Amino acid sequence: MKPILPLLAILAAAATSRGQPPPRVIPLWPNGAPGFESRKDIPEVAKDYWVKDINNPSLTVFLPPPGKANGCAVIVAPGGGFRELVFKAEGIEPAKYLNSLGVAAFALKYRLPKEDGSPYTDENVRQDGNRAVRLVRSRAAEFGIDPNRIGILGFSKGATVVNLIAYQKSNGDPSSSDPVERVSGRPNFEMMIYPGDPSPKVVTPDTGPAFLLCATDDEYKCDQVALDIYEKMRAANVPVEAHFIVRGKHAFNMGQRSPYAAIRAWPQRMADWLSDSGLLRRPAG
After folding, report:
1. pLDDT per residue over 112-126, tens digit each?
2. Helix 122-138 / helix 157-165 crossing angle, nearest 10 deg
3. Among candidates 130, 108, 142, which has minimal Cα distance to 34?
4. What is the DSSP letter of 144?
């Protein structure tokens, strides 16, 4: 029996056959997360649909074919209750879909504070989210993207990552010796799918435009979280579009396994919003 290729190797081969650069993994910090450098080389654990033991947070880079790229970029934060990451269905699959729209996508592996024995906190998750945005923005020329069109897409607890970083200015430190830390860690726009707690305490008027989507029969009441976010964004005059689908429950991922047509079609609603917001417009020349 032939050995089964690792998932990223399979993706790399498929990408190469389509003329796309194969996905590669970039650690958020070359020497490990600050204060936890000694844990950098502890291996991740992956099985079935999940990944755990994230001690060296990273981005897996998925770039669209050069002829299709439009300069937009999205960091994808999978869910998993801060105990695990649903990395294939809420990281890799959304990234590949975004590539089909000409968007550069970066699947984020962030640290997990709810995992058994975890030394991490929500503050470490916020650091990972900000650092991911900074890393992508600092290397915009390399990735062929517009540094002012960098968004973040979060599923369930991945949307909590969005809420941890989207409402603070997170200005860069121009005096830092690390060029990544010199740029802003705040996304230009955000998208949240069945968002988990907590919703933001305050939404400021300079928050980037947002897209929200969930099912109203969500067993974790994520529709109520989404409604709270929507109302706070409306009160702050932030452009926001929200879709509340009557049935679909929680964790429908990209929708392809759902029996409901509206759930299967939800990625197109996101694509429409990106297009209507001008985020998919290719620059002249």
Report:
1. 999 999 999 999 999
2. 70
3. 130
4. T
Q: Are 112 and 52 in contact (CB under 8 A)?
A: yes
The residue type of 58 is: S
Higher per-residue pLDDT: 8 or 103: 103
The length of the chain in residues reads 285
Compute the distance between CA of residue 256 and CA of residue 96 in angstroms, rounded to an integer.
14
Q: d(Cα 126, Cα 213) in Å, to the nearest integer?
A: 22
Between the CA of residue 257 and those of 235, 245, 252, 253, 266, what are the distances in Å? 36, 16, 7, 8, 12
SS3 26: strand
What span, in angstroms and rounded, lies between the C-alpha atoms of 236 and 243? 19
Query: Can you tell me whether residue 78 is helix, strand or coil?
Result: coil
User: What are 18's two structure tokens?
Assistant: 């389509």
Q: DSSP state, 224?
A: H
pLDDT tens digits for range 229-269 = 999 999 999 999 999 999 999 999 999 999 999 999 999 99
The tokens 């992508």 sit on which residue?
136
Residue 31's alpha-carbon distances to 39, 177, 184, in angstroms, are: 10, 14, 21
- Going across the sheet that includes 104-109, the strands are 24-27, 58-62, 104-109, 73-77, 150-155, 189-193, 210-215, 240-245
